Every structure is written in structure tokens, then in C-alpha cells.
UniProtKB/TrEMBL annotation:
It comes from Phascolarctobacterium succinatutens YIT 12067. It catalyses: aldehydo-D-ribose 5-phosphate + D-glyceraldehyde 3-phosphate + L-glutamine = pyridoxal 5'-phosphate + L-glutamate + phosphate + 3 H2O + H(+); L-glutamine + H2O = L-glutamate + NH4(+). Its EC number is 4.3.3.6, 3.5.1.2. Catalyzes the hydrolysis of glutamine to glutamate and ammonia as part of the biosynthesis of pyridoxal 5'-phosphate. The resulting ammonia molecule is channeled to the active site of PdxS. This is Pyridoxal 5'-phosphate synthase subunit PdxT.
Amino acid sequence: MKIGVLALQGAFIEHVQALRQLGAEAVELRQLPDLEQPLDGIVLPGGESTVQGKLLHELGMFAPLQKKIAQGLPVLATCAGMILLAEKLTNDSKLHLATMPITVKRNAYGRQLGSFFTEAEFGKLGKVPMTFIRTPYIDSVGDGVEVLAAVDEHIVAAQYGKQLDLAFHPELDVAKSTGIHEYFVSLCVAK
Ligand code: GLN
């Protein structure tokens, strides 16, 4: 089980640690050759989606990454990662990987707001801790997308095939729960 964590910018170390804690091999993806090794899954971390998108292009990683995800490689995307996967953004004309039929609102509570902690039901996992930081949320989902969690009537987690998209940061709450990373690892195992 080898999972690549995109390590260009943002909160990637915490994902690497969470996956290693669960016994998975986690490798940092920093340049094109890192993407060319056999991987069972990919994590797109939180951070700043505009910067991440720009770096993916500059490093020649954008198209190969998009192709892998479109072909079904499991992906766990958190926050900025969620924005990278969205097929549509309500308040930004610049799209990125656009592999998931969801409409996402960036900085949905305003740039400085939208940072809070709560606990809410997540799919079959029951309640999980959720840390939100300048959070986006999902405005609407297209055909075939399963909604996994909502907070205050806003969708904050969804799944499309093996693309798991979260508005919050499970990597920051690993001390409380590793449930979401375990769920993602189970998606990577079930080929
Ligand atoms: N608001 C950020 C963006 O647009 C995402 C915030 C986050 O990843 N914590 O990229």
C-alpha cells in the first residue's frame, strides 16, 4: 500500500504522518518523477488552491495527475484539494483538475471567517471531528455523487467513485480520530 501525498504547499506533513500511523507507506509527491511510481492512492492536502494549481502546471504534474484521477486512482482531497477537484466554482472562473461533478464555493464564509471546529455525522462512520479553515463548501452535486456529511445545511463531504472530497481537515484531528484516513485506505485497498 503506497499512497502519494502532494507536497507542493499546505498541510501535507500531517497527512503523511496520519497514513504512516495506519501502517500505509506514504510518499511525498514533489516533482513529476514522484508521480510516475506505482501508487495506490493520492492525497491532495489543504492550503491555497490557486498556488497549488499554479505549481502543478509549472512542474508539469498537472496533466498526469488529472489523468490518474480520471482513470480511477483513489484520491483524498481536503479543503484546497476539494477546490482542485471541483468541476465548477461558484465564485472563481479558474478551474483546476475538474474531475468531480460538484460545484464548490471558495472561502464560503468570507476570507477571514469560516474557521471553526465541530463534530458531525460522516457517512457510515458516525460522528467525526471536523476542523474547518477558511473553508469552502459544496453548493451542489451532480449525478453519481454521494453526499457524506453536511454542517448547517452545507455539504462538507462527498464521494464520487473513489474521489473523496472534504471541506475540513481530518489530518489535524488524528489524535481524536483516524476514521477518515482509515476509510480512505480501505478505498485504496479495494481495487
Ligand atoms: N480557501 C483556500 C483556497 O481557496 C482553502 C483553505 C484551506 O485549504 N484551508 O485554496
